[in-house]
Amino acid sequence: TITDRKGEPLPGVNIKIKNLQKSTVSNAQGNYTIVVPSGEATLVFTYVGFNSHEEPVNKRTLIRVTLEEQNNALNDVVVIGYGTVRKGDLTGSVSQVKVEDLQKAPVRSFEEALAGRVAGVQVSSPEGQPGNASNIVIRGNSSITQDNSPLYVIDGFPIENPNNNVINPSEIESLEVLKDASATAIYGARGANGVIIITTKKGKTGAPVITYDGYYGFQNTIKEAKLMSPYEFVRYQLELDPVSYTGVYTPDGTTLDSYRNVQGIDWQKQVFRTAPMQSHNFAMRGGNNQTLYSFSGSVLGQDGVIINSGFKRYQGRLSLDQTLKNNIKVGVNVNFSNTKTNGATPSTYNGTSNSLSLLYSVWGYRPIIGGVLPNEDLLELPLDPGVDGTGDYRYNPILSAQNEVNLLYNNTLIANAYAQIPLFKDLTLRISGGVTREARKQEIFYNTLTKYGDPRSAQGSNGANGRLYNFERNDYLNENTLTYKKTINKAHTITALAGFTMQKQDNQTFGYQSNRLPNESLGVSGLEEGVLVNATSAKTNNLLVSYLSRVNYSYKSKYLLTASIRADGSSKFASDNHWSYFPSGAFAWRISDEKFLKKYQFLSSAKLRTSIGVTGNNRVSDFAYLPTITFPISGNYTFENGYYTGAIPTSLGNKNLKWETTRQIDAGVDISLFSSRINLTVDYYNKNTYDLLLNAQLPVSTGYQSGFQNIGKVSNTGWEFELSTVNIAKKDFQWNSSFNITFNRNKVLELTRNQESIGTALAWETGYNNIPAYIAKIGNPIGLLYGYKWLGNYQYSDFDQQPDGRYVLKSTVPDNGSGRTAVQPGDIKYEDINGDGTVNASDRMVIGNPNPDFIGGFSNNFTYKGFDLNVFLQWSFGNDALNANRLVFEGTNRLSLNQFASYADRWTPENPNNEYFRTKGYGPTAYSSRIIEDASYIRVKTVALGYTLPAKWLKKTKMRSVRVYASAQNLLTFTNYSGLDPEVSTKNSALTPGFDFAAYPRAKTVVFGLSLSL
Amino acid sequence: NKQLNTIPKDFISPVNYYQTEGQLNNALNGVYDPLGLESMYANGLLTYLSYGNDEGVWRASGQVTGPMVYNYDPSEANINNLWTAAYTGIGRANLLLDNIDKATAVATATRDVILAQALFLRAYYYFVLADNWGGVPLRLTAAQSAEDVDLPATPVADVYKQVVKDMETAEALLPTAEQWGPNSGGRVSKNTAAGILARVYLTMAGSPVNDKARYADALKWSKKVIDMGFNQLNADYSQVFINHCQDKYDVKESMWEVEFYGVKADAYNEVGYVGNRNGIASNNIDFPGYGYAFLYATSKLYKSYESRINATTKVEFSPDERRDWVVSPYTWNDATKTKTFLAVTATYDRFPGKWRRDLETNLPRNKNYSGVNFPLLRYSDVLLMFAEAENEINGPTVAALNALNQVRRRAYGKLKAGATNVTEADLTGLDKTTFFNAINAERMRELAFECLRNHDLKRWGLLQSTLKEFAADIKLNAPANRKFTAIIGDNIQDRHLFYPIPSREISLNKAIKQNQGW
Questions:
Q1: How far is B493 from chain A (nearest CA, A)?
Q2: Closest residue in chain A to residue B147, using alpha carbons only
Q3: Which partner from A68, A598, B261, B299 sits 20 to 30 angstroms from A1013, CA to CA?
């Protein structure tokens, strides 16, 4: 019998007779039989992840062996681009995610559990909606207006912007992050944002192992908003518009005080809920020397904490690897996923009035109605009868959430195949091909009880209407690589790689909208009965042709050199700019192998690394370099009561467009101490990105809103620390930790046309559409918050009282931009930076930095006998957020709109405070430091407690192992941020991080689960 | 390598466009298109950007910010959108004008008509810009690259010089309204070009350019329209606007219209808010048609029309047929869908009635939108411009009086068949100043809600004083629940004569400077 140290049997161990060709494999119980030619033979036991072991037979017939696990992490295999490498021989900066820790989090996608797992990777989820993608940035944003997300390589298939929801996180075998140029340059024009390599589980030699893992649990909102009581609400309305509201809220004899103890409607309670979540995974894996197989499938269901929202996934995978004669290997790996996302994102809405957002209605709907109707009617009425619907599009949020249909179906097929052919002794040819086919269908349906379909609503003039859009992406890949590996004199090892690849992508979108549906009960299937509008049909494609090559040289694993170059030709640019070249080089020195350090026993290993290289970013639309004329139906004009097509120039084009280029240097050190119980990796990097692909905003006096250019420079420099330790390793009690922390500094070095700065306005509310909320300024990080410096409120001391009682601003006191005569005591006050006596655009300044000073994570694993506990903390420090909710719910001029409870404490003559301005004292439309908040947080992100049943209990059953567990995600959050959740960015881009308006509330999840294997 | 030259399958590039007559016409339609945008005449210029003033005031007492109450800043969306729409039209015109010579296969005469319309429309968009902002960046060829963006404002006088130069070039090439045909209200004709030229020259003669010599040009061009002999007043004032509501044309009177069509029952979006946001309030979509009714017609406007008491019935009435058309004498009762006529004394509660949704013939009505056309130039305006220019140059001559009285006679129904006492409404015995005052009042009575009042008051240099006077009167005389409408008089300042350059333009165009006071 072959066992590990814990006494667990090891199946699939290779047993070989030394110096002979004969071998066998252990069975599921760890037993084996082998016929030896003589009693003097020696058996060699080898098993992945364990030290090989030699045992002389010495005429025994029963040989029990205990294999030692390799605790030397240097022998771990790390997946890199187009190959693998022993961790000890790594020259570049590559981080491995501890997948088994990540898989303890009860989450839909690995993205949700990735934050804080590795240094240098910033993962932030813009809001809490099930199915929403996270924003992943490696070593800082380098592109100003274009995509900063990494390139993904999934089972060898490079793909930009994949839908990571289609991957079942429990099928991931390994997850590597390539960070420096030496590691990423092999991906050339797509490598500048870093690369995430995901490898899924394959079959392992041995009898079939069948596993089941499933959990069921509940999600709740982390926090809800505190809103005004009916009394405070009515008090505010009477101050806001006494002309109209005196009769409404205080009819015949009633007064404000009548509302003292009135219970209002709690709209949050009506729309938020406790939502179930469940997941079930099955797998069967096994194989022999020739064939390895893996079948797996999963079902995941996650309801959202807002009613009528959620996510579902059905997924299956098959992988087969076969060794043919002459050591030729072939294999396939096929994954199919079907996902369904349900529910509109509250933070995105048609048009640019924030009143279209679901949460605007949830928070803003009146708690009491006043006047003749009872409150209960407000729960059922589609429109609030007391609201003027011309500029305020609020709609009963219960009906909105129940009736708005927004379904997104996704069917993704990922199929890869390869053949690996040893040509000569040291030369291997690998040919692979694959296709990723994503078919997405979106169904949107608004019946007559939704704000977009109810003819009584200002936005509902289309009547019942629906939309159906189909999106298809076909991505084809062919890769051909030759690998040469040779060791000379047992000292010089050369690994050389050369390859040619082609990747082609076709995208297609088509769909239409149909209005005025006569039979709304038919839903989307009745669209043909309505008036067809907004037909969309678009097709686009791109092609990438590449040559790549890499050489690794190792002298006794002491001196390591890597050089690589990739040439990429892309159809995304005009013919003069098709081709570009991306070289890199790296050197590593295992200093601990030098004689002068050998005497230090505590030093298990120490390696110094340095690298330099050039990578690119080609994230522009397929034909961005061409000027275009389009014929949208909105460009038509009418003559003589008929429609005439208009030809509209829509894009300026730029035939000189080319890649965005990043030059990066990296210096790092890997140290292991005390028999590898302490492992420390430190990296310093400096990334300079130039020829930025900039979708520059243009003044409309040019006739265009924006145009592409290669202009500007950005740098990112940073330090990364990863520390993993074995704190306690007793027989019954173990404690391991891993800790990482990242400091990144992002800086704009150059912008368009000697510009000093680029301001970015956000379209979230009509009045704010043209006010820059963010600024990218030379010498500063890309997206700084921008606006007026808030000084509190004007107080009586700022005014001279006139004989007629009016207050006139003292001549020494600047006005807030409303005009000197308009400013009154209690109005909001801003700083007049340039001292010209008034506050206007030239008084705007940087009022916050949404980029964190440092981010990181701290994971702890405790095991005590059968119990295991994982506690994972994740944090982000020093980042500011713009809490735009407060612009709407703290002193707006919108009528009959409930406000946050905080605004009850506003300035009044009796309460002349400096915090909240008086009723109607909001001043000009502006962003200011008033609503910028520190959104630092530390979160107890994942806690998982499990108990593995003792093996002896299972002896009678056929089960190999049983583990029961409870697991929680987002359990506790510590922050000073006043909004619902500090991890927020509803208008996320490099230029505009940390904006918070009407974000889908984040949930905390607690589940209970069971893992079996037979 | 050849494989990398992928060909777009989804759009056309301008390199190969502008070859055929059809392509040129499509490009021209794109130049007309911004006129019908919400940011221009479908909504913005009808409501937010042209009112409140002494013609129409904002109805919502809660409205205390925005251009309608003279409380806004450079980030104001409606102002930015108007700027954007005008420059969008200019950009499209420039691209067409830059490329039109490539269409060598198209006959020169055909090309010239297209060129003339594009040139005229570009000039009209610049006129809208100069009228509202003063000096603006003057771009006369299409932008070549994303680097070609910084352009300072050209002084307002020079912008106008370019406007009249282009319009005069266009006028020479344009077909007459007669040649365009009876349903050509949406097309720019020679008649229209001449009439708008009169308007531009009158503007140049007034504030802020104050080039008095331009009165002669205004006179010349308005006289040219009159002398062409084609245009004439519709005998029935209300019929002009009923025609708009019913998709009918009368190019003799309503010379140039922004064309809207349809009720959004199809995929097109060529609809506006005419008669809805600037009309009579109603909650019924089917009949008489939903009305947001953003505005009250002012008491001042209502009272500016002559009022008489019928000698026998003792009932008050106005002999001026315009009063009870321009200012609705009734409101809709939503429950019964019937008209409720207002008491004579209820002068602060009236809606604009120029375009009435119950008269729309394209059914079923859409809640928000209508296909009602909006007039940009009417013949009565040309007559009044002629009278004004003649008075400025030669005093209140017979010709000036004739033109003015023609408008008044039609208003009093004296052009209708069988009219008696046709000179009853004629004004006589005016000196230069009183004649000017008569023009001022007549333009308001005749052209109310056609978005010319602010334009007129600005060029006369009377905007601020008129609105302050108006507000003072409201504070004194209006009922308590309408006193809030005095807000415009409290808020208006010198800087409001011109809009601020939108903050987006300021932040992106490094060569432009903000307007005075902003």
A1: 9
A2: A753
A3: A68
Q: What is the pLDDT of residues B230-268, one digit of tens each?
A: 999 999 999 999 999 999 999 999 999 999 999 888 888
CB proximity A514 to B under 8 Å: no
For residue A433, what are the contacts with CB-CB under 8 A and spacing of at least 6?
A416, A417, A418, A476, A477, A478, A479
Which residue is associated with the tokens 């015995």? B429
B87 vs A951, residue with greater confidence: B87
> Going by C-beta distance under 8 Å and a sequence separation of 6 or more, which residues neighbour residue A455?
A448, A461, A463, B285, B367
Which residues in chain A are contacts of B39 at CB distance < 8 A?
none
Euclidean distance between CA atoms B295 and A920, whole angstroms: 23
Distance CA A967, CA A944 (A): 4
Q: What is the pLDDT of residues A847-886, one digit of tens each?
A: 999 999 999 999 999 999 889 999 999 999 999 999 999 9
**Ramachandran angles phi, psi of B190, nearest 5°:** -55, -40
Residues of B in contact with A824 (CB under 8 A): none
Q: Which residue has the tokens 């006492």?
A: B421
Place of tokens 């990777």: A121
A622 contacts B8? CB cut-off 8 A: yes
Q: Given CB atoms, is B511 within the 8 Å cutoff of chain A?
A: no
Tokens, residue B88:
């969008």
Extract the tokens encoding B356: 């009435």
User: What's the CA dihedral at A635, A636, A639, A641 to 10 degrees?
Assistant: -130
Pick A698 or B470 by higher pLDDT: B470
CA distances to B14, B18, B20 from B104, rounded to whole Å, are 16, 10, 9
The residue of chain B nearest to residue A623, with distances taken between CA atoms, is: B8
Angle between helices B190-205 and B156-173 (to 10 degrees): 160
Residue B285 at interface with chain A, using a CB cutoff of 8 Å: yes
Q: Count CB pairs under 8 A between chains A and B.
A: 274
Q: Do A769 and B77 touch (CB under 8 A)?
A: yes
B71, A822: Cβ pair inside 8 Å? yes
Domain boundaries, chain A: 1-70, 621-656
Cα–Cα dist A94/A857, whole Å = 17
Give the relative orientation of helices B108-133 and B156-173 as an angle to the nearest 10 degrees: 150
Residue A798 has pLDDT above 90, yes or no: yes
Q: What is the pLDDT of residues A109-153, one digit of tens each?
A: 998 888 899 999 999 888 888 888 889 999 999 888 888 999 999
Would the CB atoms of A767 and B75 count as touching at under 8 Å?
yes
> For chain A, how are helix, strand and coil distributed in percent, rounded to 5?
15, 45, 40
> Is the minimum CB–CB distance between A704 and chain B shorter than 8 Å?
yes
3-state secondary structure of B491: helix
Superfamily of segment(s) A1-70? Carboxypeptidase-like, regulatory domain (2.60.40.1120)
Q: Kindly report the pTM of this predicted structure.
A: 0.84
Which tokens is A948 given? 């593995």
pLDDT digits (tens, 9 = 90+) for A377-402: 888 899 988 887 777 899 999 998 99
CA–CA dist A610, A608 (Å, integer): 7
Chain A residues with CB under 8 Å of B292 CB are 390
Cα separation of A702 and A679, whole Å?
Answer: 58
Longest alpha-carbon distance in chain A: 120
Within 13 Å and on the Cβ side, how many CA atoms surround A908? 9
A723 closest CA partner among A736, A738, A735 = A738
| B442 vs B437: CA distance, rounded Å | 8
Interchain CB contact of A633 with B (< 8 Å): yes
**Which residues in chain A are contacts of B264 at CB distance < 8 A?**
461-462, 515
User: Which B-chain residues 417-456 have CB contacts (< 8 A) with chain A?
Assistant: none
